[in-house]
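Trying the structure run again after the queue cleared.
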Amino acid sequence: MKLFIDDTTSSAKPLYYQSLILLFLPCEKFGEGDNDNSMYVKAWQQDGMNFVDVRLEVGDRVSEKSCRQSIDTSVYSQMKNLIGRTILDAAFELFGTVPPWGISTGVKPVKLARMFVKAFGKDEALRILRDEYMIHPGKAQMAVDACIFEDGVMENIGVKPCSLYISIPFCPTKCNYCSFVSCTTPRLLSLIPQYVLALKDELSRIAETIKGLGLNLKSVYVGGGTPAILSAGEIDLLLSHVYNKFDTEGCEFTFEAGRPDCITYDKLKVLSDYGVPRISINTQTTNDEILKGVGRNHTYADFVRAFETARKFDFKCINTDLIAGLPGESPKSFLKSVRDVVSLSPENITVHAFTLKRSSNYRIGGEKSYSLTDAAAIEMTDCATKHLTDEGFLPYYVYRQKNTVGNLENVGYSKKGFESIYNIIMMGEYHTVFGAGAGSVTKIVTDNANKVDRIFSPKYPYEFLDKEKYAGFDARRVCELLKER
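Done. Tokens:
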């Protein structure tokens, strides 16, 4: 798409215009020679008024909209929001839909809600999100409720907190919708024993850094990939090192076991023996045909067996993930998945919306089953929200991704008292999170959570293991960032 922007007020950056277009045309490319689609936007101020003209051309369809509004310097991002609403008005004429999150393009809508709750209170924040950002009332309520819930959790987080993420970037196979850095070939899977040993060294350096800075570890999350791809012995080796090197007293500890086909009694016993309180067993759907279609090598029955095996141990919290809008899924079958999972009584359920990610097999293979305005996916998430809240689950964290079916969101639902502190911290960027292993990111949070610096680890395990190219966790850089602010 060709963009022609004449904004004399400099109210919006080019990325904002692109992000709004992507709400209606997922994966659209921008540039002079990409296609015949185009958007013309003119924005200016004159005689105490804001003016916006938009002309949107998609194929042989054209929509033109103009808006004006009295200048009010007390209104946050007034001109930018007027531009956004005018573009959405033009897009609605062509596509017949308004995105559920309106002109909000950020991945963390709770942060937007928090800004208005703190400034104006809950009721006015809801009005602003609904009226000025065109956010669906139900979504606005979800964002505000999650904001208030998160603030309550963070009030009791303690002094000088930090968290730890441990990356296990290996999977038995790659799901067709996945773009995570996960290694699935036999050659790369053979690196696991060496990777675990290198991971121990990195964790030792992180532990020394945390101790040296006087930080207090509040949560540990072992994620992937599929952490349960490790053998029972490798899990034992990893956990022994973590509990030996870190002060985990009172710390939330989560092991994202992941796919049921990797979970065994022996592995769960190791986790239980170390006192790991939280695990995740993910099925994504209980429809066997959909599971096969997305490339997962397990069935619903395999998931139930893994879940029931886990219940033989004393895990405090079991989470499971579901994905709304997978190719071939219907609202009826997805609601069955929700009911199937709820019947097992997990303490935590995360409902993701299917996203067409850049390096996924669906994107690479040109899968055509993706529809951004998929009413079926919206029905799935609405039904899931109603059923889960009726069953006593409450939404406690929310985030969004680009190119997501129905312009929807990912929501963590929890029974009271079983919410994940780590998930809240990661989405809200409340405090520093140390990343260990390939594909991880260390986030240094300073200035009362207003400043975030990121230090990226090597993307792939073989890069992480290459001592000539990777010197290991950069403790000096971390200390510099934390101490200089």
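The mean pLDDT is 91. Worth checking whether this holds up in the mutant runs.
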